[in-house]
Amino acid sequence: MTDARAVSIPELVHGLSQPWRPVDVVTVNDSIVRLARLDGEFPWHRHDEDELFVCWDGAFRIELENQAPVDLQQGDVYVVAQGVRHRPVAERPAHALLLERPETKQYGNDHG
């Protein structure tokens, strides 16, 4: 059984006042769609699974260890492959949707 109400992402965006504190939007199959406010630099980390980023608004880049950074604008999608050290960086506040497994650690599997 599913909830018959739609989720308003713009309303969720409006309610996010602090960066790097994602909120769960919906669960789909074995994954969670999360919404995060990005502002500044997130610590370098890696995950044991792929991580999907959708730029909802604003712009940000994903810096990748030993690779060129990836710039995302509103509407862009990028997948960081499992095991790749990375960090999102936003010069100005931006919002991203993330598709992750429930057990995904926000600071990754190698963050001390």
Account of the protein in words:
With 112 residues, this protein is mainly beta. The protein is built from 1 helix and 7 strands; from the N terminus they run H-E-E-E-E-E-E-E. It has one helix spanning 9-15; strands at 23-28, 31-41, 51-57, 59-64, 70-73, 77-80, 86-100. A hairpin with a 5-residue loop joins strand 4 and strand 5 (70-73). The protein is globular, with a radius of gyration of 14 Å. The termini are far apart. The model has no long low-confidence stretch (mean pLDDT 91).
Give the SSE layout.
Layout: H1 9-15, E1 23-28, E2 31-41, E3 51-57, E4 59-64, E5 70-73, E6 77-80, E7 86-100
Antiparallel strand pairs: 1-2, 2-7, 3-6, 3-7, 4-5, 4-7
